[in-house]
Amino acid sequence: MRESAALLQAVAVRRDDLIALTRDLIRIPTLNPPGRNYREICDLLAARLRTSGFTVELIRALGTPADSARYPRWNLVARYAGAHPGECVHFNSHHDVVEVGHGWTVDPFGGELRNGRIHGRGACDMKGGLATSIIAAEAFINTHPDFTGSIEISATADEESGGHSGVAYLAEQGRFDPARVQHVIIPEPLNKDRICLGHRGVWWAEIETRGRIAHGAMPFLGDSAIRHMGAVLDEMERALYPLLATRRTAMPVVPEGARSSTLNINSIHGGEPEQQGEDHTALPAPCVADRCRIVIDRRFLIEEELAQVKAEVTTMLEKVKAERPGFTYEITDILEVQPTMTKEDAPVVRTVQAAIEKVLHTRAEFVVSPGTYDQKHIDRIGRLHNCIAYGPGILDLAHQPDEWVSVEDMLDSAGVMALTLQELLVTAPTG
Ligand SMILES: [Zn+2]
Q1: CA of residue 124 to ligand 1 center, whole Å
Q2: What is the pLDDT of residues 350-400, one digit of tens each?
Q3: For residue 431, is it within any domain?
């Protein structure tokens, strides 16, 4: 890494600006669902980035299922071209936040600054990271106006609900084509000294067992779908859960428990819908259940194949079927995401790693996320594999009440991002 004092100084003097920008972003409640104020936040960012010399495009994900006249899915892509053609470094942040929930002691959209921490929904996940990348880019451009290549900053919709109207949409338009963009950093809150290389895979599926309806007083005349599902759950406890717990991945997934294959049963529903009584109490129908459904959320490892993951569940269901007269089932896929992991020697990884050492005087830790984020679309649709998540904020605070991000952490991360830009986009050593 080359000389960096001037650049880090350019970041440090932007402290108040970074605080103000983060607070402004938090004060726009971009709640998803339903997808509020996406245009407002894109307009704020557009004004800001145009002032800094970026060319800005606002892109609505028309025709995607979540886009509507009431809640249009707006995305922003801003580009700053340097003095000479070269590689493009892209910072991608999602601008949506999850619902507020209970337990707050501060205004979730107040952007309150207290003891060096900015509070609010999205402070950590990930408006703090978005503001950090903007400050880093502006400090870099100011210090190296004659740089080679280009910088892109995007603020995208709907990451919290799958990213189909956000990064996936942009990727389908060729925005993450490796011919256009060479390095991607997603400033998700993984902590300022950690580099997130990717995430585990996901398979969501619905399993339904079937029975035959009858009077609840004479259950022998029917066939209970709930009892059939009970047999499925028994088999899962007996054979599948112990098997999954034995599998360990070489991926550095955090927290530790997520280094195994995991399976969650997200929901269960059996029987007829409950009837609303005259006194507004819900009463169950007095019937034998003819249907029972569960939704499973299976997180799989890079060492596992999706086909094998599915076959394991089907084999289990077939075993139950062979043992239980009258047992029938149906299984329906809901969601599939392949695991992804950028190589440790990829250029963006090596560069950010060196920048972390320079700014924080510590070795960067490589991690993999237990859940997915927008890297999946950049990897699969964009076919761009030089991509990481790196940003300020503590992951455990995401989606929690009184969510916050530390100003110091944002400044440190901005330093790391600015040095990364310098290393990738300044060809000749500058004094
Ligand atoms: Zn996030």
Answers
A1: 8
A2: 999 999 999 999 999 999 999 999 999 999 999 999 999 999 999 889 999
A3: no
